[in-house]
Amino acid sequence: MLIYLRVLKESFNFAISALRNNRLRTFLSLLGVTIGIFSIIAVLAAVDSLKKDITGSLSALDNSTVVVMRFNFGPSDVPRWKREQFPDVTYEEYQNLKKNLPDIEAISFALGVPGGASLKYRDVTSTGVDVGAVTHEYYDIEAFEFEKGRFFNEPEAVAGAGVIVLGHEIATNLFGEMDPIGKEIRIFGRRATVIGVLEKQGQSLFGGSRDSQVFVPANFARRVYGTTKGTVFPQIVLKPEDGVDNDEFIAMLEQQLRSMRAIKPGEINTFFINQLQGFADFIDNITGQLNIIGIVISGFSLLVGGFGIANIMFVSVKERTSLIGIQKSLGAKNKFILSQFLFEAIILSVIGGMVGLFVVWLVSIIASQFTGDFEFVLSPFNILIGTLVSAVIGLISGIIPAISASKLDPVEAIRTGM
C-alpha cells in the first residue's frame, strides 16, 4: 500500500513539475476547459437561479391551492376560439361554492385589474400599481406578513368598504417616512383608508412582488369596474383542507361548477381548474429542458477543451520520450509512466475547471448587483459537478497519450530522444 502511495506522490510531483516548466502551453491548454466548464456551470447556475426565483414567488401559496378561471395556466387541448367564448367565473359562483363545496379550508373571489391603477396622496402619485381586489378570505390563503396594520375583515369585504392594504414600496413612494395607517388616498377615483402595510418582500426577476401591489375588497373594485367580460379577470381561489385528496377535491369542484352552469354530459367544461402543483411541475419540466439544451450546447466547448488537452499531452509525450526511456531503463514501471501523464492531464483539466468555476462565481456576484433582489446561485452541487466533469475530461483526454507513453520501449525511446 505504501509503495502505491509513493508511486502516486512521485507521479503527482512529476506532473506538477511538467506543468510549471511549460506555463504558456499549460495556460493555453486549460483555457479550453475553463471556457467549457464556465459554459456548463453558468447554464446550470442560471437555470437554478431562475427556478429558485419562480418557486420563491409561489412560496406564499400552498401547492394544493386551486385557481378557477376561464384561462389555463399551461397548454390546453381546447381550441383558442372556443376558450375565448368561455364566461368569466362570477361572485355568485364563489358564494355557492363557499356554501356547498366540502373540505374547503379557505375560498376567495379575486379580480385582476388590467393596466394597474393610479394611487394619489396629496401631491404624490403612483401609477401602474398592481391591484389585487380580493375577498377577506384571501388572507387565509396567502401568507401575508404585516409591517403595520391589518388585512380587511369580512364586514369590510362584503360592504366593499373603502379600505386598502399597501405593499412596502407603494407605501414608501406615497408616504415616505410618515405612518400611512389611517391616511386617505385616492384609487379608482375614490377615497380609501390605509389599514395595513405589508412587510418588504424584495423584487422578483419576473415581477409579481407584493412590494408593488395593493389589496382592496373585491366588492370595492366591482362597484367601479362591474363584471363586464374583458375589463377584469375574475377568479376563484380555493385552498383545500390538509389531508384532503386533491383529485377527489377537484372532481367535486368540477361537478359543482358543471351543475351551476348546467353543462350537459359529454360537453366540455367552460372553465379551467388550475393547480399550483401542476404549474410547479410545468416549471420543473421547462427548467429541466433548459438544463439539457444548455449542457448539450456547452458540451461542444468542453469537447474542444478536451481535444486541446489531448493534443498537448501527445506533444508532452513526444518531448519527453528520452526522459521516459531513461526512467524505464532505471526500473520505472509502466503504471508509473501511465499515472504520471494521467495526473498531468487531470491536474491540467481540474485547474481549468476551477478557473471556470471562479469566473462563474465572479459573474454571478456582478450579475446579482445589476438585477436588484434577483440572486444568481452557484450551489455546492454545481461546484461538485464542475470539478468532477473537468476531472473526467482530463482523464479521457489523457488516457491515450498516457498509454502510448507507458508502452514505449526504453532503448527506442532513448534513441528517438537523442
TrEMBL record:
Sequence ranges assigned to domain ABC3 transporter permease C-terminal in this UniProt record: 295-410
Signal peptide per UniProt: none
Keywords: Cell membrane, Membrane, Transmembrane, Transmembrane helix
GO molecular function, one term: transmembrane transporter activity
Residue intervals of the MacB-like periplasmic core domain: 26-255
Chief location category: membrane
GO CC list: plasma membrane
Stretches that traverse the bilayer: 27-47, 292-315, 336-363, 383-405
Membrane topology: Multi-pass membrane protein
Cell compartment(s), UniProt: Cell membrane
Coiled-coil segments: none
Similarity-based family: Belongs to the ABC-4 integral membrane protein family.
Name by which UniProt lists this protein: ABC transporter permease
